[in-house]
Amino acid sequence: MGYILCRDAEAEHPYYVKELSINIYSAYELCYFIYHHSALLGDDFPDEQLLRFIGSGCRMPDLERKLRKGQAEGEDAETLMMTILQDVHYYGERELRQIQTHLSRRRLLSGSEKVKQKADYLLGKRRFQAALNLYEKILKGEFGEVDDGLRGRIRYNSGIALAGLFMFRDAAEALTEAYDLLGQENILRDLRFIYELDDTVPVRSDLLDQVQPRVHMRWIEEIAQAKERAAGDTRVLKAREALEKGAFSRREAVAALTDEWKTEYRGMFR
Fold it and tell me: Which of 19, 82, 192, 193 qualifies as a FRET site for 100, CA 20 to 30 Å off?
Protein backbone atom coordinates (compact mmCIF):
# COMPACT_ATOMS: atom_id res chain seq x y z
CA MET A 1 0.00 0.00 0.00
CA GLY A 2 1.04 3.63 -0.12
CA TYR A 3 0.14 6.90 1.60
CA ILE A 4 -2.24 8.81 -0.65
CA LEU A 5 -2.00 12.42 0.51
CA CYS A 6 -1.52 14.38 -2.70
CA ARG A 7 -2.45 13.19 -6.17
CA ASP A 8 -1.20 16.26 -8.06
CA ALA A 9 2.44 15.17 -8.22
CA GLU A 10 2.50 11.40 -7.99
CA ALA A 11 5.62 9.71 -9.28
CA GLU A 12 5.32 7.00 -11.89
CA HIS A 13 7.81 4.87 -9.97
CA PRO A 14 7.33 5.14 -6.18
CA TYR A 15 9.99 4.99 -3.49
CA TYR A 16 9.67 1.72 -1.57
CA VAL A 17 10.15 1.59 2.21
CA LYS A 18 10.94 -2.04 2.92
CA GLU A 19 10.68 -1.76 6.73
CA LEU A 20 6.99 -0.87 6.49
CA SER A 21 6.23 -2.44 3.08
CA ILE A 22 4.81 0.81 1.74
CA ASN A 23 5.27 2.90 -1.38
CA ILE A 24 5.76 6.65 -1.35
CA TYR A 25 4.43 8.43 -4.45
CA SER A 26 4.96 12.14 -3.85
CA ALA A 27 7.04 14.76 -2.06
CA TYR A 28 4.12 15.37 0.31
CA GLU A 29 4.02 11.69 1.23
CA LEU A 30 7.79 11.77 1.78
CA CYS A 31 7.39 14.64 4.23
CA TYR A 32 4.66 12.75 6.04
CA PHE A 33 6.93 9.72 6.26
CA ILE A 34 9.87 11.71 7.62
CA TYR A 35 7.68 13.50 10.17
CA HIS A 36 6.07 10.34 11.55
CA HIS A 37 8.73 7.68 10.98
CA SER A 38 12.09 9.41 11.43
CA ALA A 39 13.21 6.58 13.74
CA LEU A 40 13.58 4.40 10.64
CA LEU A 41 16.01 6.77 8.97
CA GLY A 42 19.70 6.17 9.56
CA ASP A 43 22.81 8.27 9.23
CA ASP A 44 23.01 7.30 5.54
CA PHE A 45 19.81 9.24 4.78
CA PRO A 46 19.01 10.01 2.00
CA ASP A 47 20.21 7.08 -0.08
CA GLU A 48 20.83 7.20 -3.82
CA GLN A 49 17.43 5.73 -4.65
CA LEU A 50 15.66 8.41 -2.65
CA LEU A 51 17.72 11.20 -4.19
CA ARG A 52 16.74 10.05 -7.66
CA PHE A 53 13.12 9.73 -6.58
CA ILE A 54 13.14 13.34 -5.36
CA GLY A 55 14.79 14.67 -8.49
CA SER A 56 12.94 12.67 -11.12
CA GLY A 57 9.86 11.16 -9.51
CA CYS A 58 8.87 14.27 -7.54
CA ARG A 59 10.23 16.54 -10.26
CA MET A 60 12.29 18.54 -7.77
CA PRO A 61 15.82 18.56 -9.26
CA ASP A 62 16.82 21.66 -7.32
CA LEU A 63 16.09 19.88 -4.04
CA GLU A 64 18.03 16.84 -5.21
CA ARG A 65 21.04 19.02 -6.01
CA LYS A 66 20.79 20.76 -2.64
CA LEU A 67 20.72 17.43 -0.82
CA ARG A 68 23.68 16.08 -2.78
CA LYS A 69 25.62 19.24 -2.03
CA GLY A 70 24.75 18.92 1.66
CA GLN A 71 25.96 15.32 1.74
CA ALA A 72 29.20 16.29 0.02
CA GLU A 73 29.76 18.98 2.64
CA GLY A 74 29.17 16.55 5.51
CA GLU A 75 25.72 17.64 6.65
CA ASP A 76 24.11 15.06 8.95
CA ALA A 77 20.93 13.14 8.26
CA GLU A 78 18.86 15.32 10.60
CA THR A 79 19.84 18.48 8.72
CA LEU A 80 18.98 16.85 5.38
CA MET A 81 15.59 15.74 6.71
CA MET A 82 14.84 19.35 7.65
CA THR A 83 15.98 20.52 4.20
CA ILE A 84 13.34 18.30 2.60
CA LEU A 85 10.61 19.34 5.03
CA GLN A 86 11.35 23.04 4.57
CA ASP A 87 11.63 22.94 0.77
CA VAL A 88 8.47 20.93 0.14
CA HIS A 89 6.28 23.17 2.35
CA TYR A 90 3.90 20.45 3.40
CA TYR A 91 4.00 21.37 7.11
CA GLY A 92 3.48 24.73 8.74
CA GLU A 93 5.84 26.58 11.05
CA ARG A 94 4.47 24.99 14.21
CA GLU A 95 4.99 21.43 12.94
CA LEU A 96 8.43 22.32 11.60
CA ARG A 97 9.49 23.63 15.01
CA GLN A 98 8.28 20.42 16.63
CA ILE A 99 10.18 18.14 14.27
CA GLN A 100 13.24 20.39 14.51
CA THR A 101 13.26 19.92 18.27
CA HIS A 102 12.89 16.18 17.89
CA LEU A 103 15.69 15.95 15.33
CA SER A 104 17.97 18.12 17.45
CA ARG A 105 17.61 15.63 20.31
CA ARG A 106 18.11 12.71 17.96
CA ARG A 107 21.33 14.29 16.67
CA LEU A 108 22.85 13.92 20.14
CA LEU A 109 22.30 10.16 20.28
CA SER A 110 25.16 7.74 19.73
CA GLY A 111 25.14 5.49 16.68
CA SER A 112 24.06 2.54 18.81
CA GLU A 113 21.21 4.51 20.40
CA LYS A 114 19.93 5.60 16.98
CA VAL A 115 19.87 2.04 15.71
CA LYS A 116 18.16 0.91 18.92
CA GLN A 117 15.54 3.59 18.31
CA LYS A 118 14.92 2.07 14.88
CA ALA A 119 14.77 -1.45 16.30
CA ASP A 120 12.35 -0.32 19.01
CA TYR A 121 10.16 1.25 16.33
CA LEU A 122 10.09 -2.04 14.40
CA LEU A 123 9.29 -3.88 17.63
CA GLY A 124 6.31 -1.58 18.13
CA LYS A 125 5.16 -2.46 14.61
CA ARG A 126 5.41 -6.18 15.46
CA ARG A 127 8.33 -6.67 13.05
CA PHE A 128 9.92 -8.92 15.63
CA GLN A 129 12.61 -10.61 13.55
CA ALA A 130 13.72 -7.35 11.95
CA ALA A 131 14.03 -5.79 15.40
CA LEU A 132 16.00 -8.77 16.71
CA ASN A 133 18.44 -8.57 13.81
CA LEU A 134 19.23 -4.95 14.68
CA TYR A 135 19.50 -5.66 18.42
CA GLU A 136 22.04 -8.40 17.69
CA LYS A 137 24.12 -6.09 15.51
CA ILE A 138 24.17 -3.44 18.23
CA LEU A 139 25.31 -5.97 20.83
CA LYS A 140 28.11 -7.06 18.49
CA GLY A 141 29.39 -3.48 18.57
CA GLU A 142 28.74 -2.72 14.90
CA PHE A 143 27.50 0.80 15.72
CA GLY A 144 29.76 1.69 18.63
CA GLU A 145 30.35 0.77 22.25
CA VAL A 146 27.56 -0.72 24.32
CA ASP A 147 27.56 -0.10 28.08
CA ASP A 148 25.69 -2.22 30.62
CA GLY A 149 22.69 0.10 30.69
CA LEU A 150 22.20 -0.03 26.94
CA ARG A 151 22.84 -3.79 26.89
CA GLY A 152 20.20 -4.29 29.54
CA ARG A 153 17.60 -2.27 27.64
CA ILE A 154 18.40 -4.11 24.42
CA ARG A 155 18.17 -7.53 26.07
CA TYR A 156 14.85 -6.53 27.62
CA ASN A 157 13.37 -5.53 24.27
CA SER A 158 14.90 -8.60 22.66
CA GLY A 159 12.98 -10.66 25.20
CA ILE A 160 9.74 -9.00 24.15
CA ALA A 161 10.51 -9.64 20.48
CA LEU A 162 11.36 -13.29 21.17
CA ALA A 163 8.09 -13.71 23.06
CA GLY A 164 6.33 -12.23 20.04
CA LEU A 165 7.88 -15.04 17.98
CA PHE A 166 6.77 -17.61 20.60
CA MET A 167 10.42 -18.38 21.46
CA PHE A 168 9.63 -18.33 25.16
CA ARG A 169 12.74 -20.06 26.49
CA ASP A 170 15.01 -17.59 24.66
CA ALA A 171 12.75 -14.76 25.79
CA ALA A 172 13.15 -15.82 29.42
CA GLU A 173 16.94 -15.92 29.06
CA ALA A 174 16.97 -12.42 27.56
CA LEU A 175 14.72 -11.02 30.27
CA THR A 176 16.80 -12.65 33.00
CA GLU A 177 19.96 -11.05 31.62
CA ALA A 178 18.15 -7.73 31.41
CA TYR A 179 17.14 -8.01 35.06
CA ASP A 180 20.70 -8.87 36.11
CA LEU A 181 21.87 -5.68 34.37
CA LEU A 182 19.03 -3.30 35.25
CA GLY A 183 17.41 -4.71 38.39
CA GLN A 184 13.96 -3.41 37.46
CA GLU A 185 10.94 -5.08 39.03
CA ASN A 186 8.80 -4.83 35.90
CA ILE A 187 11.22 -7.26 34.20
CA LEU A 188 10.36 -9.88 36.82
CA ARG A 189 6.70 -9.30 36.08
CA ASP A 190 7.34 -10.02 32.41
CA LEU A 191 9.30 -13.14 33.32
CA ARG A 192 6.30 -14.31 35.34
CA PHE A 193 4.18 -13.76 32.27
CA ILE A 194 6.56 -15.85 30.13
CA TYR A 195 6.21 -18.72 32.61
CA GLU A 196 2.43 -18.45 32.26
CA LEU A 197 2.73 -18.69 28.47
CA ASP A 198 4.95 -21.75 28.48
CA ASP A 199 5.17 -24.00 31.52
CA THR A 200 8.19 -25.81 30.04
CA VAL A 201 10.42 -22.76 30.56
CA PRO A 202 12.65 -23.27 33.64
CA VAL A 203 11.51 -20.93 36.42
CA ARG A 204 14.16 -18.83 38.15
CA SER A 205 12.62 -19.10 41.59
CA ASP A 206 15.54 -17.20 43.12
CA LEU A 207 14.34 -14.16 41.20
CA LEU A 208 10.59 -14.47 41.72
CA ASP A 209 10.87 -15.43 45.39
CA GLN A 210 12.16 -11.95 46.18
CA VAL A 211 8.91 -10.36 44.94
CA GLN A 212 6.47 -9.39 47.67
CA PRO A 213 3.37 -11.65 47.72
CA ARG A 214 0.94 -8.74 47.18
CA VAL A 215 2.90 -7.64 44.10
CA HIS A 216 2.98 -11.18 42.78
CA MET A 217 -0.78 -11.46 43.24
CA ARG A 218 -1.30 -8.22 41.33
CA TRP A 219 0.68 -9.64 38.41
CA ILE A 220 -1.41 -12.80 38.42
CA GLU A 221 -4.56 -10.65 38.30
CA GLU A 222 -3.19 -8.64 35.36
CA ILE A 223 -2.40 -11.82 33.44
CA ALA A 224 -5.84 -13.22 34.20
CA GLN A 225 -7.48 -10.02 32.95
CA ALA A 226 -5.49 -10.21 29.72
CA LYS A 227 -6.64 -13.80 29.21
CA GLU A 228 -10.23 -12.85 29.94
CA ARG A 229 -10.22 -10.01 27.42
CA ALA A 230 -9.22 -12.47 24.72
CA ALA A 231 -11.38 -15.36 25.86
CA GLY A 232 -14.27 -14.50 23.56
CA ASP A 233 -12.12 -13.64 20.56
CA THR A 234 -13.37 -15.42 17.42
CA ARG A 235 -9.88 -16.44 16.36
CA VAL A 236 -9.20 -18.02 19.74
CA LEU A 237 -12.50 -19.92 19.73
CA LYS A 238 -11.85 -21.24 16.23
CA ALA A 239 -8.33 -22.27 17.23
CA ARG A 240 -9.66 -24.26 20.18
CA GLU A 241 -12.23 -25.97 17.99
CA ALA A 242 -9.63 -26.81 15.35
CA LEU A 243 -7.25 -28.13 18.00
CA GLU A 244 -9.92 -30.46 19.33
CA LYS A 245 -10.46 -31.77 15.80
CA GLY A 246 -6.73 -32.20 15.24
CA ALA A 247 -6.80 -29.72 12.38
CA PHE A 248 -3.33 -28.41 13.09
CA SER A 249 -0.31 -28.92 15.31
CA ARG A 250 -0.08 -28.00 18.97
CA ARG A 251 2.51 -25.33 18.16
CA GLU A 252 0.13 -23.65 15.73
CA ALA A 253 -2.65 -23.93 18.27
CA VAL A 254 -0.54 -22.41 21.03
CA ALA A 255 0.33 -19.53 18.71
CA ALA A 256 -3.32 -18.92 17.90
CA LEU A 257 -4.57 -19.34 21.45
CA THR A 258 -2.01 -17.07 23.08
CA ASP A 259 -1.56 -14.37 20.47
CA GLU A 260 -4.59 -12.27 21.32
CA TRP A 261 -4.27 -12.20 25.12
CA LYS A 262 -0.50 -11.93 24.86
CA THR A 263 -1.05 -8.83 22.73
CA GLU A 264 -3.26 -7.40 25.45
CA TYR A 265 -0.51 -7.91 28.00
CA ARG A 266 2.22 -6.67 25.66
CA GLY A 267 0.66 -3.25 25.93
CA MET A 268 1.98 -3.10 29.49
CA PHE A 269 5.59 -3.64 28.41
CA ARG A 270 7.89 -0.64 28.72
Answer: 19
